[in-house]
Amino acid sequence: MTILESTIERNVKISKKIKSSFNLKSKSLNIKLNDLTNKRLKVRRKMKQKEIYRCSICGKVIEILHPASPETICCGKPMMLMEEQTKDWKTEKHVPKITIEGNKVTVDVGISMGTPHPMTDEHYIMWIEIICKDGCYERRFLKPGMEPKATFTVAKPEGFWAREYCNIHFLWKS
Ligand SMILES: [Fe+2]
Fold it and tell me: Do the beta carbons of residue 137 and residue 160 sit within 8 Å?
């Protein structure tokens, strides 16, 4: 065997070793990635009924009536869960205020606080709803120009809460 042949043979052996080592590392890496993915799937929270999701690309808003797969995809991306915000954080009011008179329940956004939420084309309350512990669920859709307020009739004037959805500041609950 010439010196050149011996050098070539040695280089081939080295490259085989490198390839084998790379394959092992990549297999090991794949396993780790799979483990991570599985862990991520396990910790991902379960979808719940009445949750509101929004697409950050097209602005579509959906509500979950029956929870199933852990992700809802729109425009190629998972839709964002709208958290129920409960504390006002600006002079503008968003937390719905509930007023009860017998079986009549009025929910307003800012009116009873002296600063009604805007109801312009650009910024307005899209809907107000009440949800009862016993399963009742009623929603009023609003339009720009209307008062940020809705009135409902309930069987029992207790055991319910209100939510409202602002087109810019999203979901609020009281
Ligand atoms: Fe708002």
Answer: no
